[in-house]
Amino acid sequence: MKYLSIFIFLLFLACKPAQKELTAQEIIDKSILKSGVNKVANAKIAFHFRNTLFEAKRAYGNFTLTRKKDSITDILTNNTFKRFIHSQEVKLADKKANTYKNTVNSVHYFSVLPFGLNDKAVHKKLLKSSIVKAKAYYKIQITFAEEGGGEDFNDTFIYWIGKKDFLVDYLAYSYQTNGGGKRFRALKKETIVNQIRFADFDNYKPKNNNITLENIDKAFEENQLEKISEIVLENIKVTQFN
Question: What separation in angstroms does the CA of 121 have from each of 102, 145, 230, 235?
């Protein structure tokens, strides 16, 4: 009877359907919900980053992203970028305007990750899973289409999303501007405001230029990265729109 029970149990395991592997899209969707950043789409968010005030208003696909420091205010919308000094608009050369615009957009983009990873220009690819600091992660590679992908559409990102909690604890990216390079960010602290998860990160660069983006998590565990800065959001405020 004992052996018959074992046989039935093994037969049950053999007949049990294999658990469906999640796709990159499904993982991103779960991460957005678990992080609460789906609420970002209709909200006003304000925070300080490096002694500068950033404010974002997003509603039904429209956005206004601002950066304010001293007498200077930069305003980026879906269609325009403007700089004001002492409330007076100033004309900028295209190159300078693009530089300021990209900086404003970048800070706001990183502040509410993984919000934005379902934009039309985003391409997602599921990489081989990994374990970092004894925690299992999905690894999602993000690239961008040239149309709608911004001036830095050639950049490549990787996000490490926890297999159990579906939260982003690490991210890395390679960039082409200013000679190019790679960066790796490790979660420093998380803050929940109005059910939205905001994350602070320690920012690293490789000590060895031969470290690949896909293996940069291993380099992190092997102390082959150098900490160069901290990404810390302060005085976070969220106002939810109906």
Answer: 16, 5, 28, 31
Burial call 165-180: b when 16+ CB within 10 Å, e when fewer: ebbbbbbbbbeeeeee
Give the CATH number of the domain where residue 30 resides: 2.50.20
For residue 69, the Cα-to-chain-centroid distance in whole angstroms is 24
7 within some domain: no
Extract the tokens encoding 50: 């490096």
In whole angstroms, give the CA distance from residue 132 to residue 134: 5
* Domain count along the chain: 1
Q: What is this structure's pTM?
A: 0.88
In whole angstroms, give the CA distance from residue 154 to residue 51.
30
Q: What is the per-residue pLDDT across 203-235, written as a single tens digit (0 to 9) for each?
A: 999 999 899 999 999 999 999 999 999 999 999
Give 100-144 pLDDT, tens digit per residue: 999 999 999 999 999 999 999 999 999 999 999 999 999 999 999
Cα(130)–Cα(203) distance, integer angstroms: 20
DSSP 3-state percent helix, strand, coil across the chain (nearest 5) = 25, 45, 30
55's tokens: 């404010």
- Using CA atoms, how far apart are residues 106 and 108, in angstroms rounded to an integer? 5
Structural domain containing residue 192 = 22-233
